[in-house]
Every structure is written in C-alpha cells, then in structure tokens.
Amino acid sequence: xxxxxxxGPQAPEGDPVETGEPWRKLHPxxxxxxxxxxxxxxxxxxxxxxxxxxxxxxxxxxxxxxxPGALLVFGAVVVYEMxxxxxxxYRVTGQRVEMHTGVLFKTRxxxxxxxxRSVDLSANPLERVFGxxxxxxxxxxxxxxxxxxxxxxxxxxxxxxxxxxxxxGELLRRAAVEAGEDGEQRLATWEPGWLKYAPLSFLxxxxxxxxxxxxxxxxxxxxxxxxxVEIVGGLVEDHGAWTVLGLGLVGLLLLGAVAxxxxxxxxxxxxRLDREPGGTLRVRRGLLVARSLSLEEERIRGIEIVEPLxxxxxxxxxxxxxAIGLKTDEQGSDLSTLVPAAPLPAVTAAAASVIGxxxxxxxxxxRTARARRLRWAVVAVxxxxxxxxxxxxxxxxxxxxxxxxxxAAVLGSAxxxxxxxxxxxxxxxxxxxxxxxxxxxxxxxxxxxxxxxxIIGWRITQSVFQRRMGLMTLDATTAAGKGHYAVIDADxxxxxxxxxxxVPDLLQPFLVRSAE
Amino acid sequence: xxxxxxxxxxxQHRFDPRTVPWWRVQWLITTAVPVVPLxxxxxxxxxxxxxxxxxAAVILVLxxxxxxxxxxxxxxxxxxEVTDTAVYTLTGYFWRTWRIAPMSRIQTVxxxxxxxxxxxxxxxxxxxxxxxxGAVKLEGLDQDEASALAERLTELxxxxxxxxx
Lengths: 516, 165
Known about the structure:
heterodimer, A: PH-domain like, 7-stranded antiparallel beta sheet, 6-stranded antiparallel beta sheet, 15 helices, 26% strand, B: alpha+beta, PH-domain like, 4-stranded antiparallel beta sheet, 3-stranded antiparallel beta sheet
C-alpha cells in the first residue's frame, strides 16, 4: 500500500545526493518562437481593437492607445521568456529527473525515474521550423489517492529535437532511438481515406454551432448585435420559413463538416501506432503540430472500442486505451486514443494486437432492460410534445420559430424512441480469458475490454425501479482510465455469478445461492 | 429457471447505535440553516411575515419529522463488514449500493472525526483504493473500534506487495 508514501515523487531526502550529472539548459532558439508567436498574437488582437476604437474618435487616437499597449504586452512576454529560458535547468540522474525553474516563484520539480510512465513529445509549426520540441514527462499518478498531487508532470519547453528524442529513449530506459527503430513493430497505420469519417463525428454540429455563435459575437463587437437576426428575418419573408430552416441547417452542417475535416486531418495526419522494444506503445501523428505519445504497456489495463453514432452508421469506430495515468476524463481530450475513426475490422485488428484476441459473443440483457428504456423514452416524448404544443396555444409565434419548434419536437421524439431500442440492443457483457467485456450506449456506443487483473473492487447498485424489474448494475473499479466501467441493467442473479467468475474469490464470501 | 439463484447477503454489522442521535443532530443542523434566517427575517420584516414564516414552518416540520424517522431507518439499512480479504458495505434503500474493496488493493486507510461526531464518541474509517470511483466510507463506528479497525487494515494491506493498481 504505502509505496507512494515512501517515495513521494517530490521527496528527495531519502536519496543519495548525486552531483555528477551536469545541469542542462533549454534551447535558446525558444525565444525566436516566442517573438514570432507574440507578433502574431499582437497583430491578431491589435488590428480589430484598433479598428473598433478607430470607428469612433479616429484612427490616430486609436493607434495612440493600441500601439503602446501592444508593445508593453509584447515586451513583457518576451522578457519573461528570455529570463525563463536562461534560468531553467534540468538534468537526468541515475534515479531522478529534475528541473529548476520559475521567474517569480522558484520551482524545483523532481520525479522518480522508476515512476515515469509516459513521455510525450510535441512541436507546433514554429517550433518545427527551429527544430525544437516540447517534452512532457508523466509519472502516471492519477491524483486519486491521498498521497498524490496533480503536480506529477514535468514539461521542458523547449529543447532541440535530438535532445528530445534522447530524453525519451533514456527516460523510458531503453537504448537510444536509432537502435530501437529496427525492433519496432507496426500495429496500425492511418490511411488518408479514414478522413471520410471526420465529418460524421460530433465535432460537425458542435463546430456549426460555434460558427453561429461567432457570427453573433463579431456582429456584437461592431455594435450591430441585431443584424444577423434582421438578415434572417428578411430571408424568411422572401423565401418562407421551411426553406430557410432547411437550407440554413444544411449550410451550417456543411460548414461544420469542412471544419471538422480540417481539425481531424491536422490531428491525425500520418498517424501510426508502434510497439517498441521494452514494452512501450508509441502513437505518432499530426500535420502541423507533431505529437508523439509513449506509453508503458505495464500500465495498460484494457482497451475501449468507441463508436459514436455518426461514425458507427458508417461501420467505423475508434480505439481508446484504458491506462493508468492518462487523463481521459478531460473534455475533448484525445490523449487516450490509439487509433482514430477507422473501419471496424482495422480497429479490431489494432485492438487485438494491443491486448490479444477481442472477438467474443456478448450475452444479451433481460428484456425488462428494454422496457425500462422505452419507459424513459415515453416520458421524453410526452415532455417534447408538451414543449411543442404549449407555446403554440399561448402565443402566436413567428413562422420560422414555429417551424423550428415543430421540427425539433418531432425529430426529438423519433430519436428518443429509436435510441431506447438501440441502446438496449447495445447492451451486452462477456468474459474472455483475460478480460471483462461490457458494451453499452447508443449515441456513444462503447465496448470496453477491461483486464480482469486490473479490477480493484466492485460497486454494485440497484435502484428501487431496477429491483422491481430484476435488474442490477455492476461497476468494476480500476486504477486506469475513467476509474470504473459498468455493466448496466443486467439480470440481478446472473450478473453476480458473472462478477464472481471475473475476479475469483473476491465476491464469493458475500454470495448466497438458493435453489428456486 | 431451476438454476440456483445467486444473491448478495447483507454485510454482518450494523453501525453503532449512537449513529442514530448523531445523524439526528446533523439533520437538525441542516434544517436550521434555512429555518433560522427565514424566521429571524420574518420577525424583523412585518409586511413579509407570512411569506417568510410560512416556508420556515413547513421546512421545520419536515426537518423535525425526518430527523425523527430517517436515522432509525438508515441505521437498519446501512451495514458494513470487514473480512480477512475484503471490506464490504451496503448503503441506501431507494438506490442501494454494495461496495467491495479487496484487501490487496487498498492504498490508504484514514480515520476522521468531526466535532459533532466526537461528542458522540464516533469516528469514520475511509478506505481508499487506486480507483477514482471514490473511497469506501464506514461512517459511524465507535471511536476505539474505528482505530483498532484502521490499525488492522493497515497491517493487512502493508503485508501485500505491489502498488495495488
């Protein structure tokens, strides 16, 4: 238990003092990146502000405010970075990797090398031009136990590329990368054709919504917040509500699709997943920002095949890893993704190469689980119908708003009923030689394969409604990924036998078996 | 179906009987938080008296009734057990939750005691595993029993090698 307490990652007292290793510095070219970046920021922020102020009292007065302000910000950041680059130093000793930094507050960070679990290299386009890379070293502490803190990563921003590769090789206790290149085993390679799944992701409607928000925001900056509404109102008068609504939605979705394509293309270009000698998985990807994540297989507790609705409709899915110390619960984080949206056979093959065979027949759940979902759907439909009817009875609505409300209520009801049936079809669980398999979800269908040896407890729940229907939810807790993975709404007797078989001896003493 | 039907047996122990008054006091404090300000304001602002004292009275009656009834019920429902291999708890009635944490995966064992708890001679044992799914809490053990239990758990878990992940 108390290994963590004995070697707290920031408690150097217990170690022999190591003085032999010299301190190293960050690469001085980092300042050029900062200068160019800040020039971009200052221009991008300064020009609209100057135009905004200039529309009132005149351009000269605007410049008189904006130019000194911009210079001040620019100067402050550049000087800060110069000092930071000058005073930051780091070294890798036999047992620790240490960094001293801090312009205003001195920070000394020191990580035990034996606890390092991931080394993450990244470089944005500017850094690439100057041959630099950021190195992020993670210890794989999830911050859940009482002995850990969130300060267990160390970032070197930035060093030159060869130095970054050398650190990666050294910190993961392997020979230099040149030697490792031969022993690499390719597990998955991205194909540009897979980009066709990008517009199907949930990014598309999100980005479309963001575009609408941006239009209003820009209109507001120029003091014409009502303008977009007026323009749409005019269009409705000329062409009718249904035409504008339909074409508007199609246009927005097209825009979202293009944006999603661009974002995902940038993120996943030239992606490849390798197994390196010494038991490390490495994901490399990125068009403009080159990203590289190395992950010790010792920390992997399973995989998750995720099929979001749109991607699933095209017969595709993505592969996520369930590993200790990867922050997967952050919104929009794609750190844990090993293979992006790809045809299911390719994803399954990659999954099999990471954790072994994944094919298995899933046991379906009792039909009462479907009744439960349909009941929720009926409630949702009732609410939606009420929300659609009541405003029409109370007020006389403009045509566009009325059309939008009716459309939303009808589509919402249909979706609620469909998703009830579909999410029941998704439910399933099974045991394979090493893994517990559970599938659930409709809009985000996910099949988790959780290492049975990685299950560190059970949480079994049953609401009063589930009890009446003979259902039960089994939650396997684990140190990896999101911390617990559930088999929901299974048969209340069968699931206990299942849990008992999944982790022998754990549940056994608390079970009673009655013949009936 | 003629196959044997498997079910969970409830954990062996109820919590200390003193948890009933402890929960009562906690519930009364929770009730007092909205009632006292409402009542004071109601007495100070005559025009709004009805609108302030009315809700205060409703909350007070509900709070007193719950303080009387609920703790007795909770005491019957919540259970715990520690074997040589696992910590086992059952909480809730409408949403029942059974938690099983194997001894070999326990990372830390803490005991805590709030001011009200101390006056009743009770304390809480918190058992943490490496999962972010939350700690297993044994709320309302006799304080001596709690420290003995924490000591025993610490000994048992110290004997297990590995980092429990």
